[in-house]
Amino acid sequence: MGTFLIVVVWVLAAILLASLGVWLYFNVRARRLDTHLGSFRCWARPDSQSGWTSGIAHYGVETLSWYRLVGFSARPVFILPRRGLEVSAPLTRAVDGSIVEVRVGSADQRWEFAIAPSTYTGLVSWVESGPPLDR
């Protein structure tokens, strides 16, 4: 019975250590994404029938990248080009006006974001301050 108890303790310790490692990775990854200049927290979904997923978006020089908040991948879920990006008028979804919903898209991709009104202002400013389109 003594060896069985030792094995159980070692298995539980290994599970606890692995869980701690995963938790630490998620927290370090989220902190690194959130501290980039031009990053903001938002929820995203591909269409109005899908559920919202929490994430962090990042303004780049020429792209808007969106990362899932909880995930193992260091790569963005989607990238939208700045050139030709369209942002809809905000739709207030929260009773207190703290969250607005906007549709963001380029020629081949469409996404919906739920963001703070101040973040919406920053997003529109970033899109409008881009280089002019070639016509």
* Helix and strand element order: HEEEEEEEEH
Low-confidence stretches: none
Please report the first level of CATH classification, the CATH class of the domain at 36-128. Mainly Beta
Count the DSSP helices: 2
At CATH level 3, the topology of the domain at 36-128 is PH-domain like
Alpha-beta content class: alpha+beta
Q: What is the total tally of β strands?
A: 8
Structure overview:
With 135 residues, the chain is an alpha+beta fold. The chain has a domain at 36-128: Pleckstrin-homology domain (PH domain)/Phosphotyrosine-binding domain (PTB) (PH-domain like, Roll), CATH 2.30.29. Helix content is 33%, strand content 30%. The protein contains two helices and eight strands; from the N terminus they run αββββββββα. It has helices at 2-34, 117-128; strands spanning 39-45, 53-59, 63-68, 78-81, 86-87, 91-92, 100-105, 110-115. Strands 1, 2, 3, 4, 5, 6, 7 and 8 form an eight-stranded antiparallel beta sheet that branches. A hairpin with a 4-residue loop joins β7 and β8. The longest helix is centred in the first third of the chain and has 33 residues, at 2-34. The termini are far apart.
